[in-house]
Protein backbone atom coordinates (compact mmCIF):
# COMPACT_ATOMS: atom_id res chain seq x y z
CA UNK A 1 0.00 0.00 0.00
CA UNK A 2 1.40 3.37 -1.02
CA UNK A 3 1.97 5.75 1.89
CA UNK A 4 3.66 9.10 2.22
CA UNK A 5 3.98 9.05 6.03
CA UNK A 6 7.09 6.91 6.48
CA UNK A 7 7.51 5.81 10.13
CA UNK A 8 10.58 7.32 11.76
CA UNK A 9 10.29 5.94 15.30
CA UNK A 10 9.44 2.75 17.12
CA UNK A 11 5.68 2.20 17.61
CA UNK A 12 4.23 3.67 20.80
CA UNK A 13 3.20 0.19 21.99
CA UNK A 14 6.58 -1.39 21.17
CA UNK A 15 7.37 -4.29 23.52
CA UNK A 16 10.82 -3.54 24.95
CA UNK A 17 12.16 -6.14 27.35
CA UNK A 18 14.32 -9.20 27.86
CA UNK A 19 14.13 -12.98 27.44
CA UNK A 20 15.04 -16.01 29.56
CA UNK A 21 14.37 -19.76 29.67
CA UNK A 22 13.24 -21.78 32.66
CA UNK A 23 16.08 -24.29 32.35
CA UNK A 24 18.67 -21.51 32.41
CA UNK A 25 17.36 -19.38 35.27
CA UNK A 26 14.86 -21.16 37.51
CA UNK A 27 16.74 -23.74 39.52
CA UNK A 28 14.48 -25.55 41.97
CA UNK A 29 14.95 -28.64 39.82
CA UNK A 30 13.92 -31.04 42.59
CA UNK A 31 11.37 -28.89 44.43
CA UNK A 32 7.57 -28.98 44.66
CA UNK A 33 7.08 -32.07 42.54
CA UNK A 34 8.99 -30.96 39.45
CA UNK A 35 10.25 -33.69 37.13
CA UNK A 36 13.55 -33.83 35.27
CA UNK A 37 13.85 -32.43 31.75
CA UNK A 38 16.23 -33.22 28.93
CA UNK A 39 18.08 -29.96 29.70
CA UNK A 40 18.93 -31.19 33.19
CA UNK A 41 20.72 -34.35 32.04
CA UNK A 42 23.11 -32.59 29.64
CA UNK A 43 26.56 -32.26 31.19
CA UNK A 44 28.38 -28.94 31.08
CA UNK A 45 30.87 -28.51 28.25
CA UNK A 46 34.39 -29.81 28.72
CA UNK A 47 35.68 -27.19 26.29
CA UNK A 48 33.43 -24.15 26.64
CA UNK A 49 34.89 -22.20 23.71
CA UNK A 50 34.30 -25.07 21.28
CA UNK A 51 31.05 -26.40 22.79
CA UNK A 52 32.42 -29.90 23.40
CA UNK A 53 29.88 -31.79 25.47
CA UNK A 54 29.20 -35.40 26.44
CA UNK A 55 26.64 -36.76 23.94
CA UNK A 56 23.21 -37.60 25.32
CA UNK A 57 22.79 -41.37 25.27
CA UNK A 58 20.75 -43.89 27.21
CA UNK A 59 23.81 -44.51 29.39
CA UNK A 60 24.51 -40.81 30.01
CA UNK A 61 20.87 -40.27 31.01
CA UNK A 62 21.07 -43.16 33.48
CA UNK A 63 24.19 -41.58 35.00
CA UNK A 64 22.49 -38.19 35.20
CA UNK A 65 19.34 -39.58 36.84
CA UNK A 66 21.45 -41.34 39.46
CA UNK A 67 23.35 -38.11 40.18
CA UNK A 68 21.34 -36.10 42.71
CA UNK A 69 23.62 -33.04 42.53
CA UNK A 70 23.97 -30.10 40.16
CA UNK A 71 27.79 -30.27 39.91
CA UNK A 72 27.89 -31.53 36.32
CA UNK A 73 24.45 -30.20 35.45
CA UNK A 74 24.35 -26.42 36.07
CA UNK A 75 20.94 -26.02 34.45
CA UNK A 76 19.55 -27.73 37.54
CA UNK A 77 20.53 -24.72 39.65
CA UNK A 78 20.17 -21.87 37.13
CA UNK A 79 20.43 -18.57 38.99
CA UNK A 80 17.68 -19.52 41.46
CA UNK A 81 15.00 -17.40 39.84
CA UNK A 82 12.66 -19.80 41.64
CA UNK A 83 13.38 -17.93 44.86
CA UNK A 84 14.51 -14.57 43.41
CA UNK A 85 11.73 -13.90 40.88
CA UNK A 86 10.29 -10.95 42.82
CA UNK A 87 13.67 -9.25 43.04
CA UNK A 88 14.49 -9.98 39.40
CA UNK A 89 11.17 -8.78 38.01
CA UNK A 90 11.47 -5.63 40.12
CA UNK A 91 14.85 -4.98 38.48
CA UNK A 92 13.30 -5.51 35.04
CA UNK A 93 10.60 -3.02 35.98
CA UNK A 94 13.25 -0.54 37.10
CA UNK A 95 14.69 -0.71 33.59
CA UNK A 96 11.22 0.00 32.27
CA UNK A 97 10.44 -3.37 30.68
CA UNK A 98 7.20 -3.51 28.73
CA UNK A 99 7.56 -7.26 28.19
CA UNK A 100 9.32 -10.20 29.80
CA UNK A 101 9.78 -13.33 27.72
CA UNK A 102 10.04 -16.45 29.86
CA UNK A 103 9.32 -20.12 29.44
CA UNK A 104 7.26 -22.52 31.48
CA UNK A 105 8.94 -25.78 32.39
CA UNK A 106 6.62 -28.51 31.10
CA UNK A 107 7.95 -30.92 33.76
CA UNK A 108 7.03 -28.48 36.52
CA UNK A 109 3.39 -28.78 35.40
CA UNK A 110 3.42 -32.43 34.25
CA UNK A 111 6.43 -34.03 35.97
CA UNK A 112 6.48 -37.07 33.68
CA UNK A 113 5.12 -35.19 30.68
CA UNK A 114 1.89 -37.15 30.40
CA UNK A 115 0.62 -37.35 34.00
CA UNK A 116 -3.11 -37.72 34.49
CA UNK A 117 -3.33 -34.41 36.40
CA UNK A 118 -1.18 -31.28 36.45
CA UNK A 119 1.07 -30.44 39.39
CA UNK A 120 -0.73 -27.66 41.25
CA UNK A 121 2.44 -26.54 43.06
CA UNK A 122 4.10 -25.90 39.72
CA UNK A 123 1.15 -23.89 38.47
CA UNK A 124 1.13 -21.82 41.65
CA UNK A 125 4.73 -20.80 40.99
CA UNK A 126 3.83 -19.38 37.57
CA UNK A 127 0.68 -17.81 39.06
CA UNK A 128 3.00 -15.85 41.34
CA UNK A 129 5.42 -14.92 38.55
CA UNK A 130 2.63 -13.59 36.33
CA UNK A 131 1.08 -11.71 39.25
CA UNK A 132 4.43 -10.03 39.85
CA UNK A 133 4.66 -9.10 36.17
CA UNK A 134 1.15 -7.66 36.28
CA UNK A 135 1.98 -5.68 39.43
CA UNK A 136 4.80 -3.98 37.54
CA UNK A 137 2.88 -3.50 34.30
CA UNK A 138 5.01 -6.01 32.38
CA UNK A 139 3.46 -8.11 29.60
CA UNK A 140 4.54 -11.78 29.83
CA UNK A 141 5.56 -13.40 26.55
CA UNK A 142 5.56 -17.13 27.24
CA UNK A 143 7.43 -19.90 25.47
CA UNK A 144 5.61 -23.18 25.97
CA UNK A 145 8.54 -25.50 25.14
CA UNK A 146 12.07 -24.13 25.42
CA UNK A 147 14.55 -27.01 25.06
CA UNK A 148 13.14 -28.83 28.10
CA UNK A 149 11.13 -31.87 27.11
CA UNK A 150 10.10 -33.82 30.23
CA UNK A 151 12.62 -36.64 30.61
CA UNK A 152 9.75 -39.02 31.30
CA UNK A 153 8.63 -38.68 27.68
CA UNK A 154 12.17 -39.34 26.45
CA UNK A 155 12.43 -42.51 28.50
CA UNK A 156 8.92 -43.68 27.63
CA UNK A 157 8.63 -42.90 23.91
CA UNK A 158 11.81 -41.13 22.80
CA UNK A 159 10.30 -37.66 23.01
CA UNK A 160 9.06 -36.07 19.82
CA UNK A 161 10.10 -39.06 17.74
CA UNK A 162 6.75 -40.49 18.88
CA UNK A 163 3.47 -39.11 17.62
CA UNK A 164 2.03 -39.80 21.07
CA UNK A 165 3.93 -36.77 22.36
CA UNK A 166 1.54 -34.52 20.42
CA UNK A 167 -1.35 -35.46 22.72
CA UNK A 168 0.77 -35.03 25.83
CA UNK A 169 1.76 -31.56 24.63
CA UNK A 170 -1.85 -30.58 23.92
CA UNK A 171 -2.92 -31.71 27.39
CA UNK A 172 -0.21 -29.41 28.75
CA UNK A 173 -1.15 -26.45 26.53
CA UNK A 174 -4.85 -26.80 27.39
CA UNK A 175 -3.97 -26.38 31.07
CA UNK A 176 -1.87 -23.29 30.30
CA UNK A 177 -4.41 -21.60 28.03
CA UNK A 178 -7.25 -22.15 30.48
CA UNK A 179 -5.27 -21.20 33.58
CA UNK A 180 -3.79 -18.04 32.07
CA UNK A 181 -6.65 -16.81 29.92
CA UNK A 182 -6.65 -13.03 30.15
CA UNK A 183 -3.27 -13.10 31.90
CA UNK A 184 -0.93 -14.17 29.08
CA UNK A 185 -1.66 -12.66 25.68
CA UNK A 186 1.46 -13.70 23.75
CA UNK A 187 2.52 -17.34 23.42
CA UNK A 188 5.34 -19.04 21.48
CA UNK A 189 4.97 -22.76 20.87
CA UNK A 190 8.57 -24.00 20.42
CA UNK A 191 11.78 -22.10 21.00
CA UNK A 192 14.11 -22.11 17.98
CA UNK A 193 12.21 -24.96 16.37
CA UNK A 194 15.10 -25.53 13.94
CA UNK A 195 17.09 -26.83 16.94
CA UNK A 196 15.83 -30.28 15.92
CA UNK A 197 19.07 -30.27 13.89
CA UNK A 198 20.91 -30.40 17.23
CA UNK A 199 19.21 -33.60 18.30
CA UNK A 200 18.00 -34.15 21.86
CA UNK A 201 17.97 -30.42 22.66
CA UNK A 202 15.21 -29.86 20.13
CA UNK A 203 13.58 -33.26 19.77
CA UNK A 204 13.76 -34.72 23.26
CA UNK A 205 14.85 -37.90 21.46
CA UNK A 206 18.05 -39.88 21.94
CA UNK A 207 19.80 -40.46 18.62
CA UNK A 208 23.52 -39.89 19.26
CA UNK A 209 24.45 -43.45 18.25
CA UNK A 210 22.48 -43.46 14.99
CA UNK A 211 24.08 -43.09 11.52
CA UNK A 212 23.61 -39.63 9.99
CA UNK A 213 20.87 -40.76 7.58
CA UNK A 214 18.84 -42.27 10.42
CA UNK A 215 19.31 -39.13 12.47
CA UNK A 216 17.89 -37.09 9.61
CA UNK A 217 14.85 -39.36 9.39
CA UNK A 218 14.21 -39.28 13.13
CA UNK A 219 14.72 -35.54 13.51
CA UNK A 220 12.52 -34.45 10.63
CA UNK A 221 9.78 -36.87 11.70
CA UNK A 222 10.03 -35.42 15.22
CA UNK A 223 9.83 -31.97 13.67
CA UNK A 224 6.68 -32.91 11.79
CA UNK A 225 5.09 -33.95 15.08
CA UNK A 226 6.05 -30.56 16.51
CA UNK A 227 4.57 -28.77 13.50
CA UNK A 228 1.28 -30.62 14.02
CA UNK A 229 1.34 -29.98 17.77
CA UNK A 230 2.03 -26.28 17.21
CA UNK A 231 -0.77 -25.92 14.67
CA UNK A 232 -3.26 -27.66 16.93
CA UNK A 233 -2.11 -25.54 19.89
CA UNK A 234 -2.76 -22.37 17.85
CA UNK A 235 -6.33 -23.53 17.20
CA UNK A 236 -6.71 -24.58 20.83
CA UNK A 237 -5.52 -21.20 22.13
CA UNK A 238 -7.86 -19.27 19.84
CA UNK A 239 -10.82 -21.40 20.95
CA UNK A 240 -10.06 -21.00 24.67
CA UNK A 241 -8.97 -17.34 24.57
CA UNK A 242 -9.85 -15.42 21.38
CA UNK A 243 -7.63 -12.53 22.53
CA UNK A 244 -4.52 -14.74 22.65
CA UNK A 245 -1.82 -14.40 19.99
CA UNK A 246 0.37 -17.40 19.20
CA UNK A 247 3.67 -17.17 17.37
CA UNK A 248 6.43 -19.44 16.16
CA UNK A 249 10.12 -18.95 17.00
CA UNK A 250 13.14 -19.52 14.75
CA UNK A 251 16.89 -19.27 15.21
CA UNK A 252 17.47 -16.94 12.27
CA UNK A 253 20.69 -17.58 10.34
CA UNK A 254 21.10 -14.84 7.74
CA UNK A 255 23.37 -16.20 5.02
CA UNK A 256 25.38 -14.34 2.38
CA UNK A 257 27.17 -15.76 -0.69
CA UNK A 258 30.93 -16.04 -0.23
CA UNK A 259 31.50 -14.30 -3.58
CA UNK A 260 29.49 -13.08 -6.57
CA UNK A 261 30.01 -16.47 -8.22
CA UNK A 262 26.49 -17.72 -9.11
CA UNK A 263 27.30 -21.06 -7.43
CA UNK A 264 27.98 -19.23 -4.18
CA UNK A 265 24.80 -17.20 -4.61
CA UNK A 266 22.78 -20.38 -5.08
CA UNK A 267 24.42 -22.00 -2.04
CA UNK A 268 23.48 -18.99 0.07
CA UNK A 269 19.95 -18.98 -1.33
CA UNK A 270 19.41 -22.62 -0.44
CA UNK A 271 20.96 -22.21 3.02
CA UNK A 272 18.48 -19.39 3.55
CA UNK A 273 15.62 -21.61 2.38
CA UNK A 274 16.65 -24.36 4.78
CA UNK A 275 16.59 -21.83 7.61
CA UNK A 276 13.22 -20.32 6.69
CA UNK A 277 11.60 -23.66 5.88
CA UNK A 278 10.40 -23.91 9.49
CA UNK A 279 8.55 -20.60 9.40
CA UNK A 280 7.30 -21.37 5.91
CA UNK A 281 5.38 -24.31 7.39
CA UNK A 282 4.17 -22.50 10.50
CA UNK A 283 3.22 -19.23 8.80
CA UNK A 284 2.02 -20.52 5.42
CA UNK A 285 0.57 -23.82 6.59
CA UNK A 286 2.29 -26.16 4.15
CA UNK A 287 5.61 -27.75 3.33
CA UNK A 288 7.44 -25.70 0.66
CA UNK A 289 8.23 -27.43 -2.63
CA UNK A 290 12.00 -26.98 -2.31
CA UNK A 291 12.03 -29.38 0.64
CA UNK A 292 10.72 -32.24 -1.50
CA UNK A 293 14.06 -32.58 -3.26
CA UNK A 294 16.00 -32.15 -0.03
CA UNK A 295 14.00 -34.91 1.67
CA UNK A 296 14.35 -37.19 -1.35
CA UNK A 297 18.10 -36.74 -1.68
CA UNK A 298 18.57 -37.29 2.06
CA UNK A 299 16.27 -40.34 2.14
CA UNK A 300 13.81 -38.73 4.56
CA UNK A 301 10.31 -40.19 4.26
CA UNK A 302 7.86 -38.38 6.50
CA UNK A 303 4.87 -40.26 7.88
CA UNK A 304 1.79 -38.02 7.85
CA UNK A 305 -1.62 -38.80 9.30
CA UNK A 306 -4.56 -38.24 6.88
CA UNK A 307 -5.57 -34.88 8.40
CA UNK A 308 -2.09 -33.47 9.10
CA UNK A 309 -1.96 -31.22 6.04
CA UNK A 310 -5.34 -29.69 6.88
CA UNK A 311 -4.22 -29.17 10.49
CA UNK A 312 -1.15 -27.27 9.27
CA UNK A 313 -3.32 -25.10 7.00
CA UNK A 314 -5.78 -24.29 9.77
CA UNK A 315 -3.18 -23.68 12.49
CA UNK A 316 -0.95 -20.96 11.10
CA UNK A 317 0.63 -18.55 13.57
CA UNK A 318 -0.41 -14.98 14.34
CA UNK A 319 3.12 -13.57 14.33
CA UNK A 320 6.71 -14.66 13.78
CA UNK A 321 9.39 -14.36 16.42
CA UNK A 322 13.05 -15.17 16.04
CA UNK A 323 16.48 -14.98 17.60
CA UNK A 324 19.28 -13.15 15.83
CA UNK A 325 22.89 -13.28 16.91
CA UNK A 326 25.04 -13.54 13.78
CA UNK A 327 25.19 -14.07 10.04
CA UNK A 328 27.16 -16.55 7.96
CA UNK A 329 28.69 -17.05 4.52
CA UNK A 330 27.92 -19.96 2.19
CA UNK A 331 29.61 -21.62 -0.76
CA UNK A 332 29.13 -24.99 -2.50
CA UNK A 333 31.93 -26.39 -0.31
CA UNK A 334 29.47 -26.41 2.59
CA UNK A 335 27.32 -29.06 0.86
CA UNK A 336 24.16 -27.40 2.12
CA UNK A 337 21.99 -29.85 0.18
CA UNK A 338 23.19 -32.66 2.46
CA UNK A 339 21.74 -33.04 5.94
CA UNK A 340 24.21 -31.90 8.59
CA UNK A 341 23.97 -31.70 12.34
CA UNK A 342 23.72 -28.21 13.82
CA UNK A 343 22.27 -25.05 12.34
CA UNK A 344 25.23 -22.62 12.39
CA UNK A 345 27.32 -24.17 9.65
CA UNK A 346 28.47 -21.25 7.52
CA UNK A 347 31.94 -19.87 6.92
CA UNK A 348 33.37 -16.73 8.52
CA UNK A 349 32.76 -13.36 6.89
CA UNK A 350 36.08 -11.44 6.56
CA UNK A 351 34.23 -8.11 6.81
CA UNK A 352 32.82 -8.71 10.29
CA UNK A 353 34.25 -8.74 13.82
CA UNK A 354 33.50 -11.63 16.18
CA UNK A 355 32.84 -12.20 19.87
CA UNK A 356 35.18 -14.20 22.09
CA UNK A 357 33.09 -17.27 21.25
CA UNK A 358 33.49 -16.72 17.50
CA UNK A 359 29.99 -15.39 16.84
CA UNK A 360 30.27 -12.77 14.12
CA UNK A 361 28.69 -9.41 14.89
CA UNK A 362 26.47 -8.09 12.09
CA UNK A 363 23.81 -5.49 13.01
CA UNK A 364 23.00 -4.77 9.35
CA UNK A 365 22.19 -8.46 8.94
CA UNK A 366 19.31 -7.97 11.36
CA UNK A 367 17.85 -5.28 9.11
CA UNK A 368 18.30 -7.57 6.11
CA UNK A 369 16.56 -10.44 7.91
CA UNK A 370 13.68 -8.24 9.04
CA UNK A 371 13.11 -7.05 5.50
CA UNK A 372 13.35 -10.54 4.00
CA UNK A 373 10.97 -12.04 6.54
CA UNK A 374 8.46 -9.19 6.26
CA UNK A 375 8.48 -9.47 2.46
CA UNK A 376 8.09 -13.24 2.67
CA UNK A 377 5.34 -13.52 5.31
CA UNK A 378 3.60 -10.16 5.84
CA UNK A 379 3.06 -11.07 9.47
CA UNK A 380 4.11 -9.00 12.50
CA UNK A 381 7.69 -9.76 13.51
CA UNK A 382 9.17 -9.94 17.01
CA UNK A 383 12.91 -10.09 17.78
CA UNK A 384 12.81 -12.17 20.96
CA UNK A 385 16.52 -12.90 21.35
CA UNK A 386 19.58 -10.78 20.58
CA UNK A 387 22.59 -10.16 22.76
CA UNK A 388 26.31 -10.46 23.36
CA UNK A 389 27.87 -13.14 25.52
CA UNK A 390 31.06 -11.87 27.17
CA UNK A 391 33.23 -12.29 30.24
CA UNK A 392 32.41 -9.37 32.54
CA UNK A 393 34.66 -8.13 35.32
CA UNK A 394 33.52 -6.61 38.61
CA UNK A 395 35.67 -3.70 39.77
CA UNK A 396 36.78 -3.32 43.36
CA UNK A 397 33.93 -0.88 43.97
CA UNK A 398 31.32 -3.31 42.60
CA UNK A 399 30.88 -1.80 39.12
CA UNK A 400 30.61 -3.64 35.80
CA UNK A 401 31.65 -1.54 32.82
CA UNK A 402 30.30 -3.35 29.74
CA UNK A 403 30.60 -0.80 26.94
CA UNK A 404 31.13 -3.68 24.50
CA UNK A 405 27.60 -4.91 25.24
CA UNK A 406 26.15 -1.43 24.86
CA UNK A 407 27.92 -1.05 21.49
CA UNK A 408 26.55 -4.39 20.30
CA UNK A 409 22.96 -3.65 21.30
CA UNK A 410 23.10 -0.04 20.07
CA UNK A 411 24.05 -1.22 16.60
CA UNK A 412 21.22 -3.76 16.43
CA UNK A 413 18.57 -1.39 17.78
CA UNK A 414 19.62 1.24 15.25
CA UNK A 415 19.17 -1.29 12.44
CA UNK A 416 15.73 -2.30 13.76
CA UNK A 417 14.74 1.35 13.53
CA UNK A 418 15.96 1.41 9.93
CA UNK A 419 13.86 -1.70 9.20
CA UNK A 420 10.79 0.03 10.63
CA UNK A 421 11.50 2.95 8.28
CA UNK A 422 11.72 0.37 5.48
CA UNK A 423 8.12 -0.59 6.28
CA UNK A 424 8.64 -3.67 8.46
CA UNK A 425 5.94 -4.24 11.09
CA UNK A 426 7.96 -4.96 14.25
CA UNK A 427 6.17 -5.78 17.52
CA UNK A 428 8.97 -5.76 20.01
CA UNK A 429 12.50 -6.57 21.10
CA UNK A 430 13.50 -8.74 24.06
CA UNK A 431 17.24 -9.05 24.58
CA UNK A 432 18.91 -12.29 25.58
CA UNK A 433 19.20 -12.48 28.53
CA UNK A 434 18.49 -9.42 30.65
CA UNK A 435 20.10 -11.09 33.67
CA UNK A 436 23.14 -13.38 33.66
CA UNK A 437 22.10 -17.00 33.29
CA UNK A 438 23.41 -20.48 32.55
CA UNK A 439 24.58 -20.74 28.93
CA UNK A 440 22.37 -22.87 26.70
CA UNK A 441 25.29 -24.26 24.70
CA UNK A 442 27.96 -24.79 27.37
CA UNK A 443 26.11 -24.60 30.73
CA UNK A 444 28.61 -22.05 32.03
CA UNK A 445 28.14 -18.73 33.83
CA UNK A 446 31.27 -17.06 32.45
CA UNK A 447 29.51 -16.30 29.16
CA UNK A 448 27.35 -13.46 30.45
CA UNK A 449 24.62 -11.61 28.55
CA UNK A 450 22.78 -9.66 31.21
CA UNK A 451 22.21 -6.06 32.18
CA UNK A 452 22.24 -7.54 35.69
CA UNK A 453 25.28 -9.36 37.01
CA UNK A 454 24.68 -12.49 39.11
CA UNK A 455 27.39 -13.41 41.60
CA UNK A 456 27.86 -17.06 40.66
CA UNK A 457 30.76 -18.80 38.96
CA UNK A 458 30.88 -21.80 36.63
CA UNK A 459 30.98 -24.20 39.59
CA UNK A 460 27.96 -22.65 41.30
CA UNK A 461 29.93 -20.72 43.91
CA UNK A 462 28.82 -17.21 44.86
CA UNK A 463 26.28 -15.20 46.80
CA UNK A 464 23.74 -14.91 43.93
CA UNK A 465 23.69 -11.16 44.59
CA UNK A 466 22.34 -9.09 41.70
CA UNK A 467 24.38 -6.07 40.52
CA UNK A 468 23.43 -3.48 37.92
CA UNK A 469 25.90 -3.17 35.03
CA UNK A 470 26.49 0.03 33.03
CA UNK A 471 24.25 -1.47 30.33
CA UNK A 472 21.38 -1.58 32.85
CA UNK A 473 21.23 2.22 32.96
CA UNK A 474 21.81 2.50 29.21
CA UNK A 475 18.89 0.17 28.36
CA UNK A 476 16.77 2.04 30.89
CA UNK A 477 17.18 5.25 28.87
CA UNK A 478 16.63 3.41 25.59
CA UNK A 479 13.25 2.18 26.79
CA UNK A 480 12.34 5.48 28.41
CA UNK A 481 12.99 7.27 25.10
CA UNK A 482 11.29 4.49 23.05
CA UNK A 483 14.53 3.83 21.21
CA UNK A 484 15.39 7.44 20.45
CA UNK A 485 18.28 7.82 22.93
CA UNK A 486 20.97 5.28 22.06
CA UNK A 487 23.94 7.37 23.25
Task: Describe the structure using short key phrases.
globular, TIM Barrel, single chain, 10 strands, 487 residues, two-stranded antiparallel ribbon, alpha/beta
How many beta-strand segments?
10
Amino- and carboxy-terminal Cα gap: 34 Å
Overall form: globular
Question: Main β-sheet: number of strands, strand sense, barrel status?
Answer: 8 strands, parallel, barrel
What is the CA-atom radius of gyration, in angstroms? Answer: 21 Å
Strand order of the largest sheet: 1-2-3-4-5-6-7-8
What is the name of the CATH superfamily? Glycosidases
Q: Percentage of helical residues?
A: 25-40%
**What is the string of SSEs from the N terminus onward?**
EHHHEHHEHHEHHEHHHEHEHEEEH
CATH class descriptor name: Alpha Beta
Family: Belongs to the glycosyl hydrolase 1 family.
Protein name: 6-phospho-beta-glucosidase
Organism: Schleiferilactobacillus harbinensis DSM 16991
Keywords: Glycosidase, Hydrolase
Molecular structure report:
- With 487 residues, the chain is of the alpha/beta class.
- It has one domain (15-480): TIM Barrel.
- It is built from 15 helices and ten strands.
- The protein has helices at residues 22-25, 58-66, 81-95, 106-109, 120-135, 151-157, 164-179, 200-203, 212-240, 262-284, 290-297, 308-314, 363-377, 403-422, 470-480, and strands spanning 15-19, 99-103, 139-145, 186-190, 245-257, 319-330, 381-385, 426-432, 452-454, 466-468.
- Strands 1-2-3-4-5-6-7-8 form an eight-stranded parallel beta barrel, surrounded by five helices.
- β7 (381-385), α14 (403-422) and β8 (426-432) form a beta-alpha-beta unit.
- α3 (81-95) runs parallel beside α5 (120-135), α9 (212-240) packs across α12 (308-314) and α13 (363-377) packs parallel to α14 (403-422).
- The protein is globular.
- The two termini are 34 Å apart.
- 51% of the residues are buried.
- InterPro entries: GH (IPR017853), GH_1_N_CS (IPR033132), Glyco_hydro_1 (IPR001360), Glyco_hydro_1_AS (IPR018120).
- GO terms for molecular function: beta-glucosidase activity.
- One of its GO terms (cellular component) is cytosol.
- Pfam families: Glyco_hydro_1 (PF00232).
- This is 6-phospho-beta-glucosidase.
Amino acid sequence: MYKTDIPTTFPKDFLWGGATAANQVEGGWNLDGKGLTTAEVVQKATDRLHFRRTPVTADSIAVAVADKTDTLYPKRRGIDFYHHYQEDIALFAEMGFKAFRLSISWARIFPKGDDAEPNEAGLRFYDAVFAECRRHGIEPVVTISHFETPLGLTLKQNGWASRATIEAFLRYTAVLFNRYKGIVKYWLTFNEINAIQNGTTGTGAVDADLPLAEKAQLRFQALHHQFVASARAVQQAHAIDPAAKVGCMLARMQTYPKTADPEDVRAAQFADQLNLFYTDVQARGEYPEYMNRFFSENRVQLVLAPDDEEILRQGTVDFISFSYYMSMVASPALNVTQFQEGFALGEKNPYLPASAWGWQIDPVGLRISLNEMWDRYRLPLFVVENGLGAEDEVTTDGKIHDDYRIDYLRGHIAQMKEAIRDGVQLMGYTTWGPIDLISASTSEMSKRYGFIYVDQDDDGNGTLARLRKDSFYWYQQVIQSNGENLA
